[in-house]
Amino acid sequence: MDYKISPEVEDYRLRLRAFVAEHILPLELDRGNLDSHEMIDLEPLERLRRLAKAAGLWAFQMPKERGGQGLDTVGMAVCYEEMAHSPFGPVVFNCAAPDDGTMICLNKILRDDAQKDRWLQPLIDGKFRSSFAMTEPMPGAGSDPSAMQTTAEKKGNNWVVRGHKWFITGAKGAQHFILIAKTSDDHRKGLTAFMFDADQPGWHIERRIPIMGPEEHGGHCELIFDGLEIPDENRLLEVGDGLKVTQIRLGTARLTHCMRWLGLAKRALEIASNYVTERKSFGSALSEHEGVQWMIGEAAKEIQIGRLLTMHAAWKLDQGDFARKEVSIAKIQVADTLHSSVDTAIQLCGARGYSKDTLLEWMYRYARQARLVDGASEVHKMVLSRTLLNEGTDFWSWN
Ligand SMILES: Cc1cc2nc3c(=O)[nH]c(=O)nc-3n(C[C@H](O)[C@H](O)[C@H](O)COP(=O)(O)OP(=O)(O)OC[C@H]3O[C@@H](n4cnc5c(N)ncnc54)[C@H](O)[C@@H]3O)c2cc1C
Fold it and tell me: Which of 67, 208, 271, 338 could form a disulfide with 219 if both were Cys (CB 3.0 to 4.6 A apart)?
């Protein structure tokens, strides 16, 4: 691949850098700007979103004719990493999970403009939030979607949904949902995807699940479906295409996680670099001790490996490839890198790293989810292993 970044994307990157530095970094550490779940509060968020939109720094993943910036995946990799210099950057620019993945998916699969106007445009405009509901508590679907227990049964022109989902990010306050439910016992074509509106009867939020880290707006919720009726016209793709919709949604969404996590990992290293340059110990700056240099060098190496894997997967997606193994490898690597980079940064900052005077402890708690969400690392490794055993030497092909 050609690693040269277009002038347009480089211009976006520089403008994002300046916007984050001017408008977002100053409010990060003032807890008054955060909600009770440690995410940027809605009032400052809406103010910053208006500014970002006016500056043309909005919805980089969406087509220009619908109000986005129309970047390809490589361009997104550059911009997402830059905006995630602050953990609150992606949501300000409407590039945060879960809406980011939902928008990319809906833009690819919705049939016509009328459907896009109804389900997609309010997300692009930042008027709605959405959720993706797939995971279930025991004995339902977690890593293994074929264990799905939530059913959708066809009654006339409607599908009647009964079941139980959990860890559904953003559910509280989301205006609409993508739902994956079981429609038959067929092992490969047994799941179907639907859209539903939050104000429809027949479902409710049982609870917002408390977690160890900061939460996206709307939290991670447990949902009960006890007779939700979804018109057949709100089905996505064909009956039995639920796994396909999931793959389309998660394919790019996993990679955009990597892009944002790399921005955070770089930020952690930057905080540590500032500290070790200024802090003296045993007669010199910490940065002059070889042991410290090895820690910084190791973290920088890991981040750059993650960037190259992410870029390569992005480039393959832009060539029309599903890039399944490239996305899996990037996700495994970058999830580990985020955690290890923040851990290293905390160690290098000493007691200050453990305090709430920097964002490192926020990032450390947040980072732990990376190895779980959108497929646990072990499951990605299992899939990789199957692919390797299946493809043999073709696994290593550059084409
Ligand atoms: C913060 C957060 C946000 C989330 N948001 C959403 C969301 O918006 N929508 C949604 O649908 N889901 C969401 N999830 C759920 C997430 O996708 C699942 O946690 C993930 O798919 C793993 O499923 P599970 O938790 O049921 O783990 P389980 O399937 O119970 O697995 C537990 C562990 O067993 C191991 N394991 C499982 N299978 C294998 C295997 N074959 N080989 C080796 N080891 C294995 C892994 O270590 C795994 O972590 C979210 C989760 C978190 C933590």
Answer: 208
User: Measuring from atom 41 of ligand 1, which residue has the nearest CA?
Assistant: 379
pLDDT at position 31, please?
A: 86
| Angle at 71 (CA atoms; ends 67, 77), nearest 5 degrees | 130
Read off the pLDDT of residues 360-394 as tens digits, 9 standing for 90 and up.
999 999 999 999 999 999 999 999 999 999 999 99
Question: Which residue has a Cα nearest atom 43 of ligand 1?
Answer: 378
Which ranges constitute the DSSP H helices of 234-281?
Answer: 242-278
Copy the structure tokens of residue 257. 């996680």
The binding-site residues of ligand 1, defined as CB within 6 angstroms of any ligand atom, are: 98, 132-135, 142-143, 167-169, 211, 220, 369, 372-376, 378-379, 382
Amino acid found at 215: E
Q: How many CB atoms lie within 10 A of CB 5?
A: 16
Q: What is the pLDDT of residue 3?
A: 85
Q: 92 is written with which tokens?
A: 């300000």
Tell me, in angstroms, the distance from the centre of ligand 1 to residue 223's CA: 17
- Residue 111: its pLDDT value, please? 87
Sheet strands (E) in 175-238: 176-182, 191-197, 203-208, 220-231, 235-236
Using most ligand atoms within 8 A of CB, pick from 205, 225, 379, 383 the residue to mutate for ligand 1.
379
Positions of the chain with pLDDT under 50: none
**Which residues 6+ apart lie within 8 Å of 273 measured at CB?**
287, 296
CA distances from 331 to 46, 52, 82, 125, 133 (A): 30, 28, 18, 29, 21
Element (H, E) at 350: helix 350-354
> What is the rounded CA–CA span in Å between residue 152 and residue 279?
61
User: Given ligand 1 and candidates 167, 211, 216, 338, which is best to mutate, with the most ligand atoms within 8 Å of its CB?
Assistant: 167
pLDDT of residue 258: 98
Centre of ligand 1 from the C-alpha of residue 375, in Å: 6
